[in-house]
Amino acid sequence: MENEERIHKHDARRILAHQLGFTETLNYSFYSAEDFTKCGLQEMGHIRVKNALSSEQTHMRMSLVPGVLKNIAKNNRERKNMKLFEIGRTYKEAGEFMPFEEKWIVGAVAQPVKEGEIFYTLKGALEAFLEKFRTPNVLLREAHTPHTYAHPKKTVEIVVRGETIGYAFTLHPAVSRAFQLESDVALFELNFT
Question: What is the pLDDT of residue 96?
Answer without folding.
Answer: 76
